[in-house]
Amino acid sequence: MEGRFESGADVLAVRRFIGLTQEQFASAMGISVHTLRNWEQGRRHPEGPAIALLRIAVRHPKVILENVRSAA
Q1: Which domain CATH number covers 51?
Q2: Percent of the chain beyond pLDDT 70?
Q3: Residue 58: which domain range?
Q4: Is 1 domain-assigned?
Q5: DSSP code at position 44
Q6: Strands, E assignment, 1-72
Q7: How confident is the model at residue 1 (pLDDT cuts 50, 70, 90)?
């Protein structure tokens, strides 16, 4: 991935690449499941800090997975 999130499919691809459910990924990112679903379904698009977090998720998926473990 190039770090551009132009469609909901891009956000979905990140989540699937890391191997998390919507609930797990949303929790790890500090967003609501509703927000994540809106992104994945193309109704809304991530902006600003959310894009930065998604880029980190792509480059360093272990960080996101650690957030999931620490939230459990």
Answers
A1: 1.10.260.40
A2: 94
A3: 8-71
A4: no
A5: S
A6: none
A7: low
